[in-house]
Specification:
Distance between the termini: 54 Å
Number of domains: 1
Order of helices and strands: HEEEEEEEEEEEE
Radius of gyration: 25 Å
Strand content: over 45%
Number of helices: 1
Strand order of the largest sheet: 1-3-4-7-8-10-11-12
Amino acid sequence: MRKLIIGLLWAFLCCNLYGQQLRRDFMQEVAFGVNGGLNFSKVSFLHNMNDRLYELGNQSFVMGTRFGFTTRYIHRNHFGIQLEVNYVQAGWQENFHENIGYNIVNGVDMQDVKLGRRLDYIDVPVLAHIYFGKRRLKFVVNLGPELRVMTKYNEVKWNIPDGDPRQAVFGLDDPRFKDEYKGVDYGLCGGGGFDVTVAKRLHLLAEFRYAYGFGDIYGNKKSDLFQRSNNQMFGVTLSVLYTAFQFKESRATIVVE
């Protein structure tokens, strides 16, 4: 038994030393860049009052833009950390159509009425960056938490003129038509794509991403109208990254080329 324990400890020590050697031999990278693309979003509403479900229209995704700054640190082979600060246009749109039974609200015909809001956020995701593949073409996966801070809560957007009586058919307690909201959201995001090395230090990253918010835009107590009002987003982005620094762990010496 003692020989077995000594053998296992020796094997563990050898593997640990070998792993450290691999990390020392690996060229770590720090890259900076910009990103931009399209964002498709909606808000998942869940009523506390089932007898008022007819006040919600059928939702469709709202298209907006997204852009920002990206910093990426490749710590070891196949793994790194990616930090972003983005401006994201989100929101939702509801459509009232007779063919899905959502055209009568409080006795008023809302056929073909569309309403929604645009919500603008500063979005800060902190992502585990995992990649596979060869030097010039890699498949990447990004996954981690994110924090969003609302910068603008735009007015309700209708496809009917101001003063139209159809704008007054919703309950006075409906938060969708008030200026009371939660300005901070948090959640998880993840996605995948391809990283193409187009020059010695220049990378193009094309990525599809999904984000789910855990925070609610409006109050979610039992006395509130909605028990859930959280963000869901799909994004398509293109990033340009420049590798500014390269160094090895053993010497921690920046390689300038």
